[in-house]
Protein 1
Amino acid sequence: AQSVTQLDSHVSVSEGTPVLLRCNYSSSYSPSLFWYVQHPNKGLQLLLKYTSAATLVKGINGFEAEFKKSETSFHLTKPSAHMSDAAEYFCVVSPYTGTASKLTFGTGTRLQVTL
Amino acid sequence: DTAVSQTPKYLVTQMGNDKSIKCEQNLGHDTMYWYKQDSKKFLKIMFSYNNKELIINETVPNRFSPKSPDKAHLNLHINSLELGDSAVYFCASSLSTLGQKGPYGYTFGSGTRLTVV
């Protein structure tokens, strides 16, 4: 069994300030973890993924996330927010189950960026 | 070139109707998925096909019937539509072979917004 909890449904930051979106997971297996972003009326875009290699993962658009097994966390950060970062962010966990993998999505965090 | 394309993008229909959503991927992936995103943005897997074979079938009403004519296509047919079926449906694909980028890399389509009135 696996689950993912996004601790904040809504985060608001000022442009140029750091972003922190929090995610905790539980999994019976060694998980793979992802962050996806969804801009309004757009599809899901992969930001970054952790698959048991380096625990600090760098993604697109300056985002990064750190896998902390002891804390079962995979928080998403960015040093300086940009207006274009305003979107919905999903933390996702997946076990490796052979020929098929089932993604479990968190409920999403809406990031608002203000001037 | 669109990697995963869904049609239609928007679909408005009356209760009781039957409708289909089509999905095609040109990535050479052998696994395809349907996900449903509800009004609270929560995504949940519905079905998965690997090489035209159904491998994941979550607790979904049997009014929903996926069909995969080949590994590049996965269509979703919905009978007797209900108000609660209103949602955004996402198609996705992945490589499932060990040692490659998938199944850890998923490519999603841009979604089909279904509104049942």
Protein 2
Amino acid sequence: QKEVEQDPGPLSVPEGAIVSLNCTYSNSAFQYFMWYRQYSRKGPELLMYTYSSGNKEDGRFTAQVDKSSKYISLFIRDSQPSDSATYLCAMSSGGYQKVTFGTGTKLQVIP
Amino acid sequence: NAGVTQTPKFRVLKTGQSMTLLCAQDMNHEYMYWYRQDPGMGLRLIHYSVGEGTTAKGEVPDGYNVSRLKKQNFLLGLESAAPSQTSVYFCASSYPSGRAARDEQFFGPGTRLTVL
């Protein structure tokens, strides 16, 4: 079993839709949770990070962590064609920097 | 600032050939990493470095070697390339602040390597 599981998609939605991206994990030591966005043929860029359980909002993006269920989500409101990318969840237990990435979910927002 | 740059952007090798991928960062970051990204496998850590002159193995180090002679550079070597090493290679760097989530990893644009 992989430490981090992420539905690869692809996920195709119309412009303006609410998008929900999810990851599950098995390592109880994970404390830091991140979402990276990767455009085609580019390197990943950090989109959001959270520590511990709860919600964090940044503009149209909301990151949610449920440590009791070992489940994290990224919600995108009013999705735009420019949101079309692959979204990678990532998590860490802290310390020396080892980050475990999910396989990524490819999102396409149709105008 | 250029951020993280990688050289070359593309390369085709024959089985058994060797090559070196160069990563450079101008952000004075202490930590640097080499990942490979394959369909369905996500990003996997090959080797990493926590400072000049230090290197350590990651999740999939076999067949690769690295060197960090200068703080700003991190080299990834393939001594005898194999078709299984066909992948997209990403370099990343970060500056540790004591809290992993705040230690954003900055990625380069990637090197697409094909081994025939």
